Amino acid sequence: MAEEEKLPIPPTFLEKVLFYTTATFVLLATFSLFAFLFLVPFVIEPAFTTIFMQFDPVGALCVTAQVKHLVGASNCTWASCREGCTKDLYECTQIRVNYKLGEYPNVTSTEFENLIRAERSLRKDYDYENSYEATIDKNYPEMEDQELPDVIPTGLMGNDSEWYFTGARLFPNVKGCGYPPILNCTIFYGKYRPLGTNYTCYYSRVDPGLVITDLDMWQNTLNLVYAMAIPIPSFIISVIYLTFAYFKIYNTEEESEQAPLQSDAEGMATGDDGKPTTPGSDTFREDLACFGHQLKMQLANEKPKEGFESNSPPISNSASLSGTKSSFVNA
């Protein structure tokens, strides 16, 4: 009689909940890690750089003073605007501006002049490479593509100068790059490239030669919080749950499944008195004798009856021969 096939045991409700919960945390950990790696170069690093550069929240007055259009990787060490932060530059446009500080609210004119003098004082952490003793003519041509002479200095000006800084590099943001539709370099150059254009800009207290056109510290901080507060805790929580599930939940289930096998193995390894079974012990000899007796009985039961019937023909032949002999004598 054929053995009945064992039907698979359907999973219980708790097993289904455990499976889907574990799968959810695995996917959450994976997506959180990749999201964090994606946000580092595009959101987190620019946000930190914007904070560390200490841009003055009070806008300064900028005037486009110089525009250069260069070709070649060696010439394009920087560009005022580029769509894409990872591609190499082989053609670039560089815009330099002159700017003077804006007016602070609730500050008197005397305090503002003292503030400008303090800002213009020599800084220990700034590299002064150029000489600013010569008086520079500030009359620039109106043509867009015409460049000013290369002798125009760049750097902090003295107290008798109209400008606070001349020849500063202009960028749309601290990285000078972005992606449409947030940043469109065609619109940026069309707005800030014409020489003599006046607009509001924001300079860095750490590097006064760096100027940006847009500054929103609240939005910058908010983007930084979102980029770090969502993927990092999600990844940590997922890792904690998966570690707990691996060492506690699934490990307990495996131990419960292996408990009957372990108890059987322990029962075979020890005798009735609880002592370990060794080849020289009485328990081992009794078990071995019992096993031998059971083996003999099993072999005797499995011996087919046809074997005995195959040995009967010689007996029947001898009987027939004796019958023939007796009939011959009687005759």
Keywords for this entry:
331 residues; alpha+beta; five-stranded mixed beta barrel; 8 helices; 8 strands; rod-shaped
How would you explain this protein's 3D organization?
The protein is α+β, with helices and mostly antiparallel strands and 331 residues long. 47% of the residues lie in helices and 13% in strands. The chain has a five-stranded mixed β-barrel. Strands 2-6 form a two-stranded parallel ribbon. Strand 7 and strand 8 form a beta hairpin.
Strand order across the largest sheet: 1-3-5-8-7
Give the rounded overall mean pLDDT: 75
- Gap between N and C termini: 59 Å
As a percent range, the share of helical residues equals: 40-55%
Along the chain, the helix and strand elements come as: HEEEHEEEHEEHHHHH
Low-confidence stretches: 115-124, 128-151, 315-331
| Largest sheet composition | 5 strands, mixed, barrel
Count of extended strands:
8
